[in-house]
């Protein structure tokens, strides 16, 4: 009804979203503290360029990607087109930041004479980035660009959702591999003695897992999915009629 207040969020959703953001911001702060206190900080030139890589990957491939996935749970009463656009923009920003991190690690390796793309971490990381880019391009093509038929969108949507969650999990797993690799390169001899840097880096890993679990829980609760608004249902039927040539009242 016109003028009626929007329906309230389902019980518990706001609390879990708030916890996810608290974990995510704590994760970023802990990552920055680790790099600043024990790895000398972050800079684009010189010996500190490598540190741009872990910071950008945690920010882009984990925090922003997770927040992009939560858009459809948080913005439940806004226009679907606006929600889609925000979802795509956050993913696009995550890709740009991740690309900066990839460029940083390649340039750092070349400056130091270190080989590229030989470790499991690098293989998983490159796979995650390339698949993430493909997923973003396909999502924009199917759901934002005009022209895709209703049936194509309907068939692709389950794959898009599954791949999105799978890539988020792969990104977190790749970060965990990277943390372990970085610690073994830098404090191999003292890591087993529970030195402060090792404890802090392990804490970053636990925060990565916790953030991923909370985001994953929010995404998999069926009752927390964004319900279609009344006008969206009507537009959906009109769009199906135009693209598929079916009558809105025809058999399904």
**Average pLDDT figure:** 90
Radius of gyration: 21 Å
Helix-and-strand structural type: mainly alpha
Number of strands: 0
Question: Summarize this, please?
Answer:
This protein has 252 residues and is mainly alpha-helical. Helices cover 73% and strands 0% of the residues.
How is this fold's topology laid out?
Layout (H helix, E strand, L loop, with lengths): L12 H26 L13 H23 L5 H33 L7 H25 L5 H38 L8 H25 L9 H15 L8
Mind explaining what this structure looks like?
This protein is mainly alpha-helical and 252 residues long. Helix content is 73%, strand content 0%. It is built from seven helices and no strands. It has helices spanning 13-38, 52-74, 80-112, 120-144, 150-187, 196-220, 230-244. Helix 1 packs antiparallel against helix 2 (52-74), helix 2 (52-74) packs antiparallel against helix 5 (150-187) and helix 4 runs antiparallel to helix 5 (150-187). The longest helix is centred in the last third of the chain and has 38 residues, at 150-187. Residues 246-252 have low confidence and may be disordered.
Features of the shown structure:
single chain; 252 residues; mainly alpha; 7 helices; globular; disordered C terminus
């Amino acid at each position: 009804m016109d003028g009626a207040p929007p329906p309230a969020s389902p019980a518990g959703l706001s609390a879990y979203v708030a916890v996810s953001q608290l974990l995510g911001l704590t994760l970023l702060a802990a990552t920055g503290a680790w790099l600043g206190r024990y790895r000398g900080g972050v800079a684009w030139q010189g010996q500190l360029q490598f540190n741009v890589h872990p910071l950008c990957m945690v920010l882009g491939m984990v925090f922003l990607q997770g927040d992009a996935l939560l858009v459809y749970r948080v913005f439940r009463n806004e226009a679907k087109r606006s929600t889609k656009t925000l979802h795509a923009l956050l993913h696009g920003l995550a890709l740009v930041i991740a690309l900066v991190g990839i460029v940083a690690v390649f340039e750092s390796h070349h400056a130091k004479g270190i080989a590229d793309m030989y470790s499991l971490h690098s293989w998983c990381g490159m796979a995650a980035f390339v698949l993430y880019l493909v997923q973003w391009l396909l999502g924009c093509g199917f759901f934002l660009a005009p022209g895709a038929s209703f049936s194509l969108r309907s068939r692709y949507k389950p794959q898009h959702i599954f791949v999105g969650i799978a890539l988020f999990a792969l990104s977190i797993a790749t970060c965990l591999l990277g943390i372990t690799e970085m610690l073994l390169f830098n404090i191999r001899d003292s890591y087993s003695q529970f030195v402060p840097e090792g404890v802090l880096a392990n804490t970053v890993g636990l925060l990565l897992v916790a953030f991923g679990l909370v985001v994953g829980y929010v995404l998999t609760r069926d009752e927390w999915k964004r319900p279609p608004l009344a006008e969206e249902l009507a537009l959906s039927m009109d769009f199906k009629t135009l693209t598929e040539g079916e009558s809105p009242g025809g058999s399904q």
